[in-house]
Amino acid sequence: MVTGINANTDMMTSNKSNSVHSKQGDFKKNVLTCVGMGTQKVMLRSDALISYASPKTGESVNIYHADNYSKENPVYVIKGLDRYGNEFEKEVNAKEINPNCCSYNDMMILNLETGNANDSSYLKSAMMFDKSGRDSYFDEADYTAAMKSLMKDFKTLGCWDSYIFMDKWLHDIWDYTKKTEQSQDLRVKNGYLTS
Which of 12, 84, 96, 161 has the most CB atoms within 10 Å of its CB? Predict the structure, then answer.
């Protein structure tokens, strides 16, 4: 488990590519319980692609590939507990995420989709979340602006390795979302999609 910047986030990663329903059993029975989140129970799953929790809000998030996941259909399932301790489950298609207006959960899906899901990426994600000024993982923000602000800080401090890492990461996100937009534009042009 990695503790994020400002202790806003705890995370677990797994190299497993399991989908959310590929394991049998009850979600609650196979949960790791994290302590130190106040009185809120937190669900962090060891079978998730990535898991994280906020000591500040009590939210916990586990991200999986959906059963029908493919590179052409990059659908993820987000499960966990909200700030009130209520279970939630939501499907998100990575191709529909706009990094200029999305939630932190959406950005973590883009990280998974672009291969930026290691511990170093996660620590910088926690810093980016802090820069966004949001309290909840579900609140939308302009994460492109947050990344650029963080890059400016790294440049000012002379942290060139981190600056270069963030620049590559930002371009990975832009490249992915641009390809998605171009693919959708082409499908609309060819009559496959309608508004």
Answer: 12
Of 148, 138, 65, whose CA–CA distance to 105 is shortest? 138
Classify residue 96: in a domain, yes or no: yes
- Tell me if 37 is assigned to some domain: yes
Number of independent structural domains in the chain: 1
- With respect to residue 36, please indicate whether it lies within any of the assigned structural domains: yes
pTM above 0.85, yes or no: no
CA-wise closest residue to 142 among 94, 182, 107: 107
Q: What is the pLDDT of residues 43-95, one digit of tens each?
A: 888 889 999 998 888 899 999 999 999 999 999 999 999 988 889 999 999 99
| Strands 87-93 vs 102-103: parallel, antiparallel or unpaired | unpaired
Share of the chain above pLDDT 90, in %: 53
Axis crossing angle, helix 119-132 with helix 104-114, rounded to the nearest 10: 150
The tokens for 128 are 């980016």
Residue 195 lies in a domain: no
